[in-house]
Amino acid sequence: MSVDYKNTINLPQTDFPMRAGLPELEPKILKRWDDIDLWGKLRADSKGREKFILHDGPPYANGHLHIGHALNKILKDIIVRSRQMTGYDAPYVPGWDCHGLPIEWKIEEKYRAEGLDKDDVPVDEFRKECREFAAKWIDIQRAEFKRLGVLGDWDNPYTTMAYGAEAQIAKEIGKFLMQGSLYKGARPVWWSAVEKTALAEAEAEYMEHKSTTIWVKFPVVTPATPELDGASVVIWTTTPWTIPGNRAIACHEDFDYVVIEVTAVDDGAKGAVVGEKLAVAKALVDSVCEQAKITGHKVVAALNGSQIKGTVCAHPWRDYADAKGGYDFDVPVLAADYVTEDAGTGFVHIAPGHGADDWKLGVEHGIEVPQTVGEDGSFYDFVPLMAGKVVITQDGKEGDANPSVLRELAIAGKLLAKGSIRHQYPHSWRSKAPLIFRNTAQWFISMESHGLRDVALKAIDETAFYPKQGKTRLHSMIKERPDWCISRQRSWGVPIPVFVNKESGEPLRDQAVVDRIVEAFKLEGADAWFSSDPSRFLGNEYNVDDFEQVKDVVDVWFDSGSTHSFVLEGREDQQWPASLYLEGSDQHRGWFHSSLLESCGTRGRAPYDAVLTHGFVMAEDGRKMSKSLGNVVVPAEVNEKYGAEILRLWVVSEDYSGDLRVGEKMLKQLTDYYRRFRNTLRWMLGGLAYYDPAKRVAAADMPELERWVLHRVAELDKIVRKGIENYDFTLIFRELHEFCAVDLSAFYFDIRKDSLYCDAKDDPTRLASLTVLDILFESLTAWLAPILSFTTEEAWLTRHGDADGKSVHLRQIESVPADWLLPAADAARFDLVRQVRRVVLAALEQKRYEKEIRSNLEAAPVLYADAKYVQAFDKLDLADVLITSQARFADGAAPDGAYTLSDVPGVAVVFQKADGEKCERCWKVLPDVGSVPEAPGVCGRCADAVGTAEAAE
Fold first, then answer.
1. Structural domains in the chain?
2. DSSP letters along 99-142, please?
3. Would you state the pLDDT for residue 610?
C-alpha cells in the first residue's frame, strides 16, 4: 500500500501573502506607525548620534500633490531613512511655503469670479483669506505626503507664515539693511503686467512664443570713421515695443562690418531704398538683404567694430513731426562683448529700461535709463507717439504697442523689414502671460558692496554637488547675476520692514527699530506692519511724518531662502548647516540660489554641505504631461490602484539625476519588479518557519555554496553603503533586484529547495541553508526598508510579531563580518559553475520540448568540460547544482552531437536518463529507491529523513 509522505516534507509555511493588496495594507501600516509613535521611538533611539539633516525645500500650499511632489518627497524619505539606519540621527522636518503670488493669485481668482476687485478689499482681510487658504492646503498636502509613506515630524512642520518665521524673515532683511547692502534703485526687472508685480527669474517659465521681428535704420549723425558718413546703422530686435526706450546701439569690437549701397530692390520691398547705405555685420549681409528684399548691393566699405564704436546716430523718430521733438537725442554706438553674429545685423538696439545687459551698458556709459511703461503694461502718457499704447493686456494678450511701433517706423521711413520668429520666451508661472523687462524702482541686495558674490562663489566651491555639474551651473549663475531684487508689489507676504526718510530718500538704519519690528511680528505676525501705527516701530526717537513706510513685500525666494535661519538654527532637533539640500534641477536658480545668497550675506557661508538635484517627470513617451493629452499621472490615483510602494520603487528605478518617465505601462512593469522582491521575501519566510537560532551554523562550517552566498551578502553590503553615501539608490535597486532574481531565485533557492524540503531536519546542509536564509532576510529587509518601507515592515512583522512596538525601521543596517568575503579566485569559480549550469539547463529544456523527459529530475547528464569548469565544482554536488537526479563529468573529448552553447566554449552535454525509480517524496530518480523496507517508495536519503522525523515526534 502506498504511503503518504506529504506531511514529512518541510513545505514552506508563512502568513505573508503572495498578493500584497497594497492599497488596503499601506493605510493600516501608516496607522500602526502612528499608534506606536514610530517617529518618537526613532528620536529616542538615535539620541546622541551624529546628526544627518536633510532640510526640506518648502512646496507651495496651494493644491493637490502632483507626480513631481511624489518624486521629491519619496526621494527625501528614502535618503533620510537610509541615513537613520546607518548610524545617524536623521530627523526630517517638513515645511511649506505659504506667501507669495501662487496663493495670492488663487484668492484673486475667487474675487474675480465674484465680480470683486482685490484692491477694494482691506489688506488685513485679504491677508487673512490668504492665510486660511494656505492652512487648508497644508492639512490636505500633509495627509497626501504621509500616504506616500514619508516619515517626518508632521505634527510640528515649519511654515513661512508662522509668526516666528515671519519675524525671523524680517530680522534677516534687517541684517542686510544694517550692513548697508540693501538699497532702493531703479533698474529693469521681469514684470508681469497681469499680476502687476516684479518677478524673480525663478518665477519665469520659458514657453514657445511668436514674436514680431524688425530691422530698423538708425541714421549716422556723427561718424567715427568717414566710411560711415551718410549711412544708417541697422539693428534687429524681437521686441519692437522697446524702440521708444532706445538710447544706444551696441557693436562688437572684434567683428567685421561692411557698409553696403543698395543697387536694386524687389517689387515687394517696403523699407529698402536704392542708393541708401546700410551698415551691417559682414557675416549677416545676405540674410539682411533677403529679409529686406534687396536684390542688388555693393560693398562700399569694410570696417572693424573698433572703428565703428563712438559713432553717433539719430533715433529713428528724430525730426519725425508727429513725435514733436520727443526723440531728438543722440544715440551713441558702444562696444559690448555680448553682441553675436548668430542672427540679426551684428548691431544690438540698447533700451536701458528693458534689459539687464542694456541697463548695465547704459549705466557704464552714463546713458539715461528712461521709464516708459507702467505697471499695467501700458505706455505712460508722456511717452511721445506711444502714450497709452499697451504692450501686454490685462488678460495676458499682446496689445497694440508692437503694431503702433511698426506703423510709425514705416511712416518715418526707418523700417527696413519685418518678420516673425518662434522662440522660447519668459512667461509668468501663474498667469502664463508673457513678461516684459520694465524699469522700476525696487529694493535690491547688492552683490558687490559687501562682497556677497565672492563669498557665494567660494561657498559653492566648498559644497559637494550630486551630480557634479550642478556646481558649474550654480557657479555660472552667481558669477553673472545682477543685484538681487527682493521687492514685490503684492499684499500676501512678509513686508520689507523699512522706513525711508522723505527728505534724503535713504532707508532708516536703526537696530532698535528693527528689533521692535521683529518683536511685533513674533506676537502678531507680519500683519502687524499693516495694522499698526508706524510710531509703534519708530518709537519716540523719530517723527512719523518724516518717514515713508515701505509697503512692498519681500520676494518669496527670500522667504524660502531664509528657512535655514528659523528651522536649522531655530529648532533643537536640527543643526546648521544642513547636511543636504535636495530639490529639482530648476532650483539652481531658485531655492539653492536664494538660500546661498541669504546665508552667505548674513553668515558668510552656504547653509548646506551638499546639494542633490533630481530631474523632472515626463510621460512615458517622453512628452510633457498634459491633461489635454491624458497622460498625467496622479499620485493619489496610483496609490488607490497599485499602492504607494510602486511609486517608491519608481523613484529609484531610473537615474533620477536626469528626467524620469512614468505612465501606465511603466507602472505595470514596476509591479513585476515589486513581485520579485515580494516573492523573495515570501520564499524566505516560508523556509524560516523551521529556523532554530540554537542550531545556527557558523560561516566557517558552511558548505561552499552557502559561503558564496555570504560572500555576495558582503559584496552587496558594500554596494548598498556606497549607494547610500553617494545618494545612488538606483544602483542599490538594480543590484538588489539582480541579486533577488538571479543569484537567489534562479540559482541558490532553486538549488537548495530540495535540501530545505526533503533533508532531515538536522541535516548539516539544511541547517546551513536555514542560517543563510536568516542572514538574507535580515539583510534584505534592512537594505530595502528605506525604499519598500511598507513591504519590509509587513515582512518583518510577519516573522517577528507586532508586539512591543516593533518595526523594521527601528533597526540598523548591521555590519557584515570581514571573513564573509572570499578570495577573488574562490568567488570567481561560481561564475564558471553558473555557466556550466546554463548549458545543462538549456540542453534539458530541449529534451523537455522534444518530450523525452517531463522533468529535469529524470535526467542524468554527462558533462565534457575543460579543467577549469571541473575544478569549479570542487566540494559541490554536481547533481544538486544542476537539479538533476544524477550527473557526472566524463574524461576525454565530447562526442559528436553533444549539446553546446556558443558563448560557453569548453562545455558540452550528453543527455542520459537517470537510472532507478522515482522517489515518492523528493521525486528524484535514484537506484536506491525502495531499499529501506520501512520506507517503501522512497530513496535512502528520504528514508533517513522520515526516520528522523518519526523519531523526533
1. 51-181+446-614 (3.40.50.620), 207-436 (3.90.740.10), 660-803 (1.10.730.10), 826-952 (1.10.730.20)
2. -SHHHHHHHHHHHHHTT--GGGS-HHHHHHHHHHHHHHHHHHHH
3. 98
